[in-house]
Design brief:
The protein is mainly α and about 140 residues long. Helix content is about 70%, strand content about 5%.
């Protein structure tokens, strides 16, 4: 395979990983919150990354920012894939944002508690960020 087709294949893999991460963020599995209606009763509910009630109830803004920036990076990668000849700093911006997404996911898990979906989202975003460095 030549370099251009290898680059396109890498971008398609990055797009697939980003789409999988966004899909997991849209499901109400990613951010756990613990509620205490009484002194001895604790209830744990999970919310989607796109849900603004997490920010309102716990002050944790990182899940929502991570979700929105993931969509931005997805469309940047799609733009890079569809218009490869245009000059610009899109590649650098998408790479920096991809690593910021990994840190945002880790900070979100540190503030709200990590669960399997959050760890899986962080791993998907990390692999996508590394592949962007390699292929973009």
């Amino acid at each position: 395979m030549n370099r251009l087709s290898t680059r396109k294949a890498g971008l398609v893999v990055c797009l697939g990983l980003m789409a999988a991460a966004i899909l997991l963020m849209a499901l109400p599995l990613g951010v756990p919150l613990t509620f205490a209606p009484g002194p001895d009763i604790r209830t744990r509910k999970t919310f989607a990354f796109f849900d603004l009630s997490v920010w309102g109830m716990s002050g944790n803004v990182f899940p929502f920012l991570t979700a929105v920036l993931s969509v931005v990076v997805f469309f940047l990668l799609l733009w890079i894939l569809l218009r490869p000849r245009e000059l610009g700093k899109r590649e650098t911006v998408s790479q920096v944002l991809a690593f910021l997404l990994v840190f945002g996911t880790i900070l979100s898990m540190m503030m709200a508690g990590g669960i399997l979906a959050g760890v899986l989202i962080a791993v998907l975003l990390l692999v996508a960020a590394v592949l962007q460095i390699v292929f973009v």
